[in-house]
Amino acid sequence: MCGIIACTSTQEVRPLLLNGLRHLEYRGYDSAGLAVLTTSGHLEVHKKIGRVDSLAAHLPSSPPPAHLGISHTRWATHGEPSDSNAHPHLDQSGLLALVHNGTIENHADLKSQLLAAGHHFLSETDTEVLAHLVGQHYDASSASGPDRLTDSLRLALASVKGTFALAVIHRDLPDIIVGTRRGSPLVLGLGRNQHLLASDAAALLPHTRKVIFLNDLDITTISPDNFSIASLGPHTASWHISDLDLAPDAASRGHFPHFMLKEIHEQPLAISRSLHRRLDHDNASAHLDQLGLSPASLHHIDRVRIIGCGSALYAGMTGARMIESTAFLPADTEIAGEFRSLNRPLGNHSLVITVSQSGETADSLAALREARRKGALTLALTNHPSSSLAREADATLELLAGPEIGVAATKSFVSQLSAFALLALALGRLRHLPHHSGLELIHALEQLPSQIDSILAQSHSIAAIAARFASSHGMLFLGRGLLFPIALEGALKMKEISYIHAAGFAASELKHGVIALIDPHTPSVCLCPDDSLLSKNIGTIHEIKARRGPVIAITSNPNPEIDSLADAVIRIPATLDLLQPILHTIPLQLLAYHTALALGRDIDKPRNLAKSVTVD
Ligand code: F6R
Fold first, then answer.
1. If you average pLDDT over residues 213-221, what whole number do you get?
2. Distance CA 599, CA 480 (A)
3. Which of 113, 256, 280, 486 is the most buried (most CB within 10 A)?
């Protein structure tokens, strides 16, 4: 999704902006652009469809120095990917340039008013409308200097509906960038002799670790040696400087060919981190005191509703099953976008858990706000403790997965599952879960990192299976109980990066229609843990084989019947039923990865996808 990096400095800024855009590439984009103000006072704008490298190749080879600039990677919402629709956009005077993340809902009305006032537009974007609107107020303003720009933004944004994070420059203000946000993230970076704005803290890492996560309606004015923060709203702005706690190589692939593979291999570490100091051996429970929710408030909960999108939703579906089976608490899941549209009733003692890797997904944030409005206790499960979601929820359980750059969620998903296992343990021990069962779960959790390592060691044999089936025109993923959501996740991973049509189903649904899809060219991936449902899962494999459908079985203990029926078997270590989802996820990720590799797909930047879906 769109990304912003802007900088005002005592040095040349073009290389910094291009490098910053490369750090934002993983978010997904279709075009890139920058606007710089040269030291001789010329506003230079370059925009190019395609990769940041195309933009870099398009820049003049020996340009005049420029110490101030804004830049952007665009993921098309209003208007197709093209040079003219790429940001930055200029106002009517051509002197004000603006980059924007988010969507302007009333852009059509605003555009009609501007057209009536004689404005001309060069793109189909909502952002150009915003640039013209700000420019109109700038021209009419009586203020001078930076105040003129902040005042014009304040006035323009008062009539804007929608979400934005934006950075604006004007030719007459050689040192100044003004940035503001509502509903989309924006981070201020405090560098040496320079200040920066970015939509993603990772893009600031090469320049500073001192950052300020701006709040909604904050408006900041930055120059190389100064910054100020005010509010567009009725309150005074409050902010604090945070230290970025990211490893310098957090955004590098190391020796792995893709971020996705690196992140799949980081999962044992991610799980260890998420368990560290959270397991309470003495009480056979989990330490969730850092949540800031008292045992009394957790004890009063009589229903859990879990909300998320995509993989986070599937983690939530698994989490709901974990909580119900361990804590005997009714728990269900809702697609975040549906929750916000459906006006769902919430009881007085509901806990609403919003799951989101980024903590910035527009639908998830809106759902959280809706739950808070209805008076529910809210908990954010996120990888980003400074995200909007974490800041707005009553409590946060941090995933501690480390930065996830690959567009397809991998280690964040597995960390979400382990966080839910901890939550189920803690809620279970607050209710009826016996001490010995709690301890058994703790011991099983502690074995996960080495068990995942042993599955990762099978990467080559999984690659061979992937190569055998990569030319399939479709794939089915089937699981029961706790593994039904994992079948959905397996199918999502496969379609996202291989572009093979894949669908996940509850195995019990096979006979109710899905079976029509079975043929010799459509493999079924069957999740068959060695549990009380094993004989049913073997029955499912029989039904598929009877129709000459190929079967890839994922199972734990050797089973002669599965071995003789299935076309390929992936064996994983045995664990408790509750943790089967975590171990079954790993081979599904590897299967998707190696299938995409065999098909020559752009694994870290799958077509049309964005890492963080911050627009509606
Ligand atoms: C799938 C994937 C998406 C995200 C979804 C929610 O691989 O990455 O389905 O899970 O867009 O994103 P977050 O978790 O950031 O809210």
1. 92
2. 30
3. 486
- Report DSSP letters for 388-437, one per residue: HHHHHSSEEEE-------SSS--HHHHHHHHHHHHHHHHHHHHTT--HHH
The residue with greater pLDDT, 140 or 397, is: 397
**Ligand 1 closest atom vs CA 364:** 16
- What is each CA distance from 26 to 46, 86, 404, 408, 611, in whole angstroms? 21, 17, 9, 10, 7
* Measured distance CA(406)–CA(611) in Å, rounded: 8
Q: Which of ligand 1's atoms lies nearest the C-alpha of 308?
A: 16
Contact 388, 362 (CB under 8 A): no
- pLDDT grade for 614, boundaries at 50, 70 and 90: low
Cα pseudo-dihedral 611, 613, 614, 615, rounded to 10: 140
Of 356, 237, 353, 341, nearest in space to 304 by CA: 353
Q: So what's the pLDDT on residue 203? A: 86
pLDDT confidence of 610, banded at 50, 70, 90? low
Q: Is there a shared CATH topology between the 3-243 domain and the 254-447 domain?
A: no
Identify the three-state secondary structure at position 604. Answer: coil
The answer to whether 2 is a known catalytic residue is yes
- 545 is a catalytic site residue: no
Residue 409 CA to ligand 1 centre (angstroms):
6
Spatial strand order in the sheet of 395-398: 331-335, 303-308, 350-356, 377-382, 395-398
β-partners of residue 97 are 90, 169
What ranges do the domains of the chain cover? 3-243, 254-447, 458-616
pLDDT tier, 612 (very low <50, low <70, confident <90, very high otherwise) = low
- pLDDT, one tens digit per residue, over 12-32 is 999 999 999 988 876 667 889
- CA dihedral (381, 385, 391, 396) in degrees, to 10, reads 40
CA 142 to chain CA centroid, nearest Å: 42
C-alpha 412/C-alpha 316 separation (Å) is: 12
Of 222, 210, 140, 208, give the one whose Cα is nearest residue 180: 222
Q: Which of 197, 193, 202 is nearest to 181 (CA)?
A: 197
pTM for the structure as a whole: 0.80
The predicted pLDDT at position 292 comes to: 73
Of 358, 355, 388, 352, nearest to 373 by C-alpha is 352
CB-based contacts of 509, cutoff 8 Å, min separation 6: none
pLDDT higher at 96 or 290: 96
Cα distance between residue 20 and residue 71, in whole Å:
9
- The encoded tokens of residue 337 equal 């976008």
Q: Peptide bond preceding 449: is omega within 30 degrees of 0, i.e. cis?
A: no
Domain 458-616 has CATH 1.10.3210.10: no
The pLDDT of residue 206: 86
CA end-to-end span of the chain = 12
Gap from CA of 41 to ligand 1 centroid (Å): 43
Q: Are 214 and 186 in contact (CB under 8 A)?
A: yes
Q: List ligand 1's pocket residues with C-beta within 6 A.
A: 309-312, 356-358, 361, 364, 408-409, 492, 496, 612-613
3-243 sits in which CATH class?
alpha beta
- Domain 254-447 class, CATH top level: alpha beta
How far is Cα 606 from Cα 595, in angstroms, rounded to an integer? 13
